[in-house]
């Protein structure tokens, strides 16, 4: 998935995408234009179908 495809899928720009993913806009703008990180692609696809994306920190459980 490209950044432009992600923007179009969620109807957002780079800042909006960053907000949805809970990251800084600078991180989004550092991604290559032709291919976003695979983990972020899965999160974006989850958001597109109305699911809450899985976040790394949410998965850590302290015993």
UniProtKB/TrEMBL annotation:
InterPro entries: Lambda_DNA-bd_dom_sf (IPR010982). GO terms for molecular function: DNA binding. It comes from the Bacteria. Gene3D superfamilies: lambda repressor-like DNA-binding domains. This is Uncharacterized protein. It comes from Acinetobacter larvae.
């Amino acid at each position: 998935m490209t950044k432009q495809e992600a923007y179009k899928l969620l109807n957002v720009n780079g800042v909006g995408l960053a907000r949805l993913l809970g990251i800084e806009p600078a991180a989004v703008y550092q991604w290559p234009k032709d291919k976003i990180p695979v983990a972020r692609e899965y999160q974006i696809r989850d958001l597109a179908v109305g699911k809450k994306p899985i976040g790394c920190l949410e998965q850590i459980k302290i015993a």
